[in-house]
Amino acid sequence: MKKSGMAILLISLSALHLAVLAAGFLSPYDVAEQDRQFPFAPPTRVHFIDAEGTVHWRPFICLLAEDAAQFGVYHEDMQKCFPVRFLVEGTPYRLGGVFASRQHLLGVDPPARLFLMGTDGYGRDLFSRFLHGGQISLAAGLLAMLLSLGLGMLLGTASGFYGGWLDAAVMRFGELFIALPWLYLLFALRAFLPLNINPSQAFLLLIAVIGSVGWARPARLIRGVVLSGKERHYVLAARIFGGSSLYLMRRHILPQTYSIIVTQAVLLVPQYILAEVTLSFLGLGVGEPVPSWGNMLASLQQYHVMVSYWWMLLPGVALVPVFLGYVLLANALQTRAI
Amino acid sequence: MRYLGLRFLQSIFVLLGVSLLSFIFLELAPGNFFDEIRLNPQISGATVASMKKQYGMDQPLPVRYFRWLDSAAKGKLGFSFAYNAPVAPLLWARARNTLLLTGSATLFAWLVALPLGILGAAKRHRWISHACELFTSALLATPDLLLALGFLFLAVHFRWFHAGGMFSRESAGEGTWALSKDLAAHLVLPVAVLVLGSLPILLRHTRAAVLEVLDSPYVRAARGHGISPWRILFRHALPAAINPLVSLFGFSLGSLLSASLLTEVVMSWPGLGPLLLEAVLARDIYVVIGAVVFSTVFLVFGTLLADFLLFAADPRIRTEGLA
User: Fold this and answer.
1) What residues contact residue B316 under an 8 Å CB cut-off, 6+ apart?
2) Same-domain check for residues A292 and A164
3) Which of B7, B25, B146 best tests the A interface by mutation, with the highest count of A CBs <10 A?
């Protein structure tokens, strides 16, 4: 890939992560805010042209009203329109968990509601929940990746550097993890752990389970690099000068593994995000009322939701750019590494 | 041959290790099936204790493990609490459905991936190759879960195929021909999801394997001799490119039982996936362990089979042991 392509890719990926981090600011509403009047409301249409045909420079939306004849079917009341406002005061939140603020990027004046991705069965704004859910899912993916790579680095370096029985033991143990079908292993581990726990415990549990399952492959790759790396002449020279094992590993051997670690990290993150999505989708991960990318899709398991409310699929569709970013980055890194 | 024998022994050890590991996790885990039962006020403590005794759950871990090994050797793989039946027949009934689904999906995926991958490698730098690349990246970025949900949505919305399940209710009691037609209609969607899910990986590996050979000096020499491009591709390049593909094929065989878990759950295909999910939720631990071991058997023997095939297909590996 060209350098400019790589730059664009990195910038858009970071922008996605920043958007999720700044979920409080970018989302119009709070994740738990229920609008019981509007369950399963479709995405709000943003207009530029009003009923008389005049063009407005500022986008506006119209008040939603439920059909008198049919339950759960809405139409727009084109007589009552409200402009979309930027930087409005709304529900308080903490940006990145630190800075308290009430400023929201987008908003409309009260009787009207701005549902960019529609609402779920409780009348909660899907767009806000998607952004906040990303915090859970991305954090789970990133933290599980750190755990997995940390374990892999520790065990891989130790087994490559010391060799002997330690090497044999670690590698045989790792083979068990590689031999097991990945999703089955996750399921099995999850089966042995308590089911009914609160979301924050579930989050930590999820990271521990996902992270500890995937250590074997990176450990094997790192071990390979360490095996060849410790025979390099400058490493031998450093050893002859009296460098301790720890010093040698930290200063001379680990730096050789960095490129593999970065590539592995980029490969693992989407895989682990997907693991969180899958487990939460099946009700084995982070549960309500906390949103996560997985449990937002869970309601699609009900037939009537699947049939009638297409926008409930939007959180799933919105995952694709995130994964695509990681996949393209991994491709670029792999072709460069060879 | 010694190499193959060694690999076989190694596989057996992996299986033993996996089952032992599952039991150790089970021992460490808080709560079990009987704790859930104990919550029911209509069941007395004495009943729970006698049930525990009946299933041998009051015994220490090593005893239970060896009992389980014994029952596995007899082809039972332990006992399901929830179904009150031996695990193996339970698993087998579901595994057949899974194999039907994944077998047809694997067949289709390879039938599509091989020609497309070879074409993509042969026509490098052409638009077809770039299109291939773009297509695989996009597919790789679309999670299976989303594919399954999306297909289900489209199917329900446009009333395309039969969505969900394996047979329609109306088709019960009809002839074999009508039944198989019904089955095929139900197969279309999950197979499509599985094919699209595994296609990008197969395509990439095929393309990379063929490309690598096409870049090698002997192919350049053949080209220099004026041999036609198609003959080079099929006669000279493909036999040499088959090595990584055989390993990949072994992996695809190995993952026959485990690849479709999520798709089965979403599309309510009565395979191993829904059974496993139920067992996890009910903490029916022997079914979970049984399913894990069962699918590991497949994975391990899939790779083993790939090794055997490689041994047969690649003369370089055959002579390695002799030298």
Assistant:
1) none
2) yes
3) B146
Choosing from A97, A124, A151, the residue where a domain stops is A124
pLDDT, tens digit, for every residue of B86-143?
888 888 888 888 888 889 999 999 999 888 888 888 877 777 777 777 888 888 888 8
The alpha carbon of residue B1 and the mean position of all alpha carbons in its chain are separated, in whole angstroms, by 28
Backbone angles phi, psi at A66, to 5 degrees: -80, 140
Q: Count of CB atoms within 10 A of residue A57's CB?
A: 5
Whole-number Å distance between alpha carbons of A89 and A105: 9
For the stretch A213-252, pLDDT in tens is 888 889 989 998 888 888 888 888 998 998 888 888 888 8
Domain-embedded: residue A19: no
For residue A18, tell me if it sits in a domain: no
Assess whether A168 and A229 both reside in one domain.
Answer: yes
Single residue among A79, A107, A124 that ends a domain in this structure: A124
The shortest CB-CB distance from B258 to any of A175, A183, A307 is to A183
Pull the structure tokens for residue B244.
Answer: 């990584």
Regarding whether A307 and A158 lie in a shared domain, the answer is: yes
What is the domain-level CATH number for residue A162? 1.10.3720.10
Across the interface, of A191, A306, A324, the residue whose CB is closest to B141 is A324
Same domain assignment for residues A53 and A151: no
Tell me the one-letter amino acid at B95: A
Question: What percent of chain A is modeled with pLDDT above 70?
Answer: 95
What does the alpha-carbon distance between residue A86 and residue A104 come to, in Å, rounded to a whole number? Answer: 8
Dihedrals φ, ψ of B42, to 5°? -80, -10
pLDDT at A125: 84
Asked whether residue A150 falls in the same domain as residue A225, the answer is yes
Residues A255 and A236 in one domain: yes
CA A328 distance to own-chain centroid: 16
Mean pLDDT score across all residues of chain A: 82
How many domains, in total, are found in chain A?
A: 2
Mean pLDDT of A184-210: 77
Determine contact, residues A86/A26, Cβ cutoff 8 Å: no
How do residues A314-324 score in pLDDT, each as one tens digit?
888 888 888 98
Contact check, Cβ <8 Å, B157/A192: no
Structural domain includes residue A6: no
Helices (H), ranges, B82-126: 87-122
Tell me: pLDDT of A338 over 50.
Answer: no
- Residues A77, A175: one domain? no
- A1, A170, A176: best mutation site toward chain B, by most B Cβ within 10 Å? A176
Q: Is the ipTM of this complex over 0.85?
A: no
Residue A226 sits in which domain range?
A: 130-337
CATH for the stretch B88-318: 1.10.3720.10
Residue A85 within a domain: yes
CA distance to partner chain A, nearest, from residue B288 (Å): 6
Lowest-pLDDT choice from A103-107, A243-247, B37-41, B84-88: B37-41
Among B143, B258, B283, the residue with its CB nearest the CB of A181 is: B258
How many inter-chain contacts (A to B, CB under 8 Å) are there?
122
Q: How far apart are CA A329 and CA B135, in angstroms?
A: 16
Contact B277 A282 (CB under 8 A): yes
* A295-315: burial string, b at 16+ Cβ within 10 Å, e else: bbbbbbbeeebbeebebbbbb
Q: Does the pLDDT value for residue A54 go beyond 70? A: yes
Angstroms from A201 CA to nearest CA on chain B: 15
Do the chains contact at A331 and B137, CB–CB below 8 Å? yes
pLDDT value for A142: 92
Answer yes or no: do A228 and A309 share one domain.
yes
CA-CA distance, A283 to A296, in Å (whole number)?
11
